[in-house]
Amino acid sequence: MSSATRQEVLRHLETTPLIQPALHKQTHAPAPTEINHTLYRAYTRAQHDIGGEPDIPVMYHEKEEEIWELNTFATCECLAWRGVWTAEERRRKQNCDVGQTQYLGLPYYGRWLMTAARIMVDKQFVTLTELHNKIAELKERVAAGQGLGEYLPAKTK
Fold first, then answer.
1. CATH code reported for the domain at 6-54+66-156
2. Distances (CA, A) of 149 to 129, 138, 146
3. What is the pLDDT at residue 10?
4. Is 108 an active-site residue?
5. Which DSSP category does 96 fall into?
6. Where are the domains of the chain?
7. CA 32, 91, 132 angle in degrees (round to 5)?
8. What is the pLDDT of residues 17-43, one digit of tens each?
9. What is the per-residue pLDDT across 60-107, written as a single tens digit (0 to 9) for each?
């Protein structure tokens, strides 16, 4: 099992700002008199709250969930059943507490996975290092052709 090297952590910390929105004006706690209606709306609007916003028509297509999506849903439900989080806590972390880049850039169940990992680390069920090491171990197994066979239902093997 490999552990995160200092170089990998540094690369992660340097990469994260690259996925921030391209146009960002740094502000330092503006005074109330400096906040106009447009700025107030931007500060208070959550990225998932798009009611009344202009948009283009979207074609919705029914699709069957992929195995990883079903596994994610089951994992998150088990976390709730075990009292790790509530549905409201999960929704808040995956819809409101993520930035717009992650909200719009990750698939629906990708946000669920990210939220599960954040909460498991935040509530100290697992350390960030343990989580990183497990992900690295799984990546190595997949790269070696061992795959995730024991984690998949029999019909997909």
1. 1.10.472.20
2. 25, 11, 7
3. 73
4. yes
5. I
6. 6-54+66-156
7. 100
8. 666 555 556 666 777 788 787 777 766
9. 888 888 999 999 999 999 999 999 998 888 888 888 888 777 888 888
Tell me, what's the pLDDT at 115? 92
**Alpha-helix runs per DSSP H in the chain:** 6-15, 37-44, 67-81, 87-91, 100-105, 108-122, 128-143
pLDDT, position 74: 94
- CA separation (Å) from 74 to 77, 116, 119? 5, 12, 16
Number of residues assigned to the chain: 157
Q: Are 116 and 96 within 8 A, CB to CB?
A: no
Please answer whether residues 120 and 131 qualify as being in contact, where contact means their C-beta atoms are separated by less than 8 angstroms: yes
Which among 60, 108, 109, 151 is annotated as catalytic? 108
Q: How far apart are CA 93 and CA 74, in angstroms?
A: 18
Tokens representing residue 81 in the block: 């059943």
